[in-house]
Amino acid sequence: MFMHNKRLQYTVRVGATNPGLANLMLEQFGGPQGELAAAMRYFTQAVTEEDPGRKDMLYDIATEELSHLEIIGSIIAMLNRGAKGELAEGVDQQAELYRKLNGAGNDSHVTQILYGGGTPLVNSAGVPWTAAYIDTIGEPTADLRSNIAAEARAKLVYERLINVTDDAGIRDALGFLMTREVAHQKSFEKALYSITPNFPPGKMPPKEEYASVYFKMSHDGAVVNAPWNSGTGLSIETGEPAVDGGDGMASVELDAQQETALTAMAGRLRSDPDGDPPTGAELGSDTAAPGAGSK
Fold it and tell me: What CATH number belongs to 19-193?
């Protein structure tokens, strides 16, 4: 059960309206790295989580992400608030409205013309939010790693949004949201490492002969030895086919009927390597055989 508190988790103070900036802020409202995506990712994981401690953590963070959705949505609403009434009441003349929509290089038609100064669940390019942003797979050791990466991506987007505005109040609120991404990363990492063993994800063991091999697939230049290819427990191999010792070809066992049908199809569709038939492009070209393309 959710209960709404009318006060925001963090106070939003917007110095001046700015529809163009509101458009950019939509990235964290309805975008793939945004707060709704985070809330739904952790909520769906929490519903099916069997560990009571992790279940509480996921519900807590999912609920906090909804509060963050309210914060970023409030920022967008405040940035659009001045234009909201003007649009609804048709205050501006056509040229003046166009100037506002495209002023200072900010194309703000997404929130202005399409949504009347509202806070739609779209990203900054107007692409609608989709559940495809949620990559939960139902295995905690995989999902927690995905959560850590999601929080890292969200932090970077907040950094970029902070850098596109000089509004002190907005920068302060975005700084809070950015910082909470760091806190959530810490919680998810602690939860991941509390599962022992946590690598590799899943239950089935890998094939040992390939699990610690780095295949060098680029053959130009010298090998750069680094932790990711020759660190503890890792070795470098060229990856020449076939690494399993076979011939590297694909094969399948067919029954007699399938074999007969396949042979017939291959014969019917066989190409003639010795032929050189004229093509439509050649027939219409000036460089074709004499008379080609002429009437």
Answer: 1.20.1260.10
